[in-house]
Specification:
It is built from 2 helices and 6 strands. It has 136 residues and is mainly β. The protein has one domain: OB fold (Dihydrolipoamide Acetyltransferase, E2P), CATH 2.40.50.140.
């Protein structure tokens, strides 16, 4: 039986990308992405929750993310979930979920790549419609 491990996140970059290199010389860039969820409580109070994701990009994608992403940019990230555990220098056990990116698309006006022609009007308004989100 086949299995699927795929995450899609659209949010704002919450930290400056950090690029480093493996011992073999492969570039790897990590950055944080924040998504917001707005809802009303049963008492009618408007609430907003922020969820943070750590994104890891490798090789050419790592170089592009490091070069073009800055804190605050709106991005579309597609990738797989990876869970890591390690021991800190203090001997404490650490755990982190990460998105290993297959695709990162810059969605705001500062994007290096042009937006598709059919969504240019929506891009000017700064809002995304469900039709703007590509699912494959």
């Amino acid at each position: 039986m086949a299995s699927v491990n795929k995450l899609i996140v659209i949010g704002n970059v919450g930290s400056e990308p950090e690029m480093r290199f493996t011992p073999n010389g492969n570039p790897v860039t990590s950055f944080r992405v924040a998504t917001n969820w707005r809802y009303n409580t049963s008492q009618g109070e408007r609430r907003e929750e922020t969820e943070w994701f750590t994104v890891v990009a490798w090789n050419r994608l790592a170089e592009q993310c490091n070069q073009f992403l800055t804190k605050g940019r709106l991005v579309y990230v597609e990738g797989r979930l990876r869970s890591r555990t390690w021991e800190s220098q203090e001997g404490e056990k650490r755990f982190r979920n990460e998105i290993v990116a297959d695709k990162v698309t810059f969605l705001d006006r500062q994007a290096a790549a042009p937006l598709p022609e059919d969504s240019a009007d929506e891009a000017d308004s700064g809002e995304l419609s469900p039709d703007d989100i590509p699912f494959s």
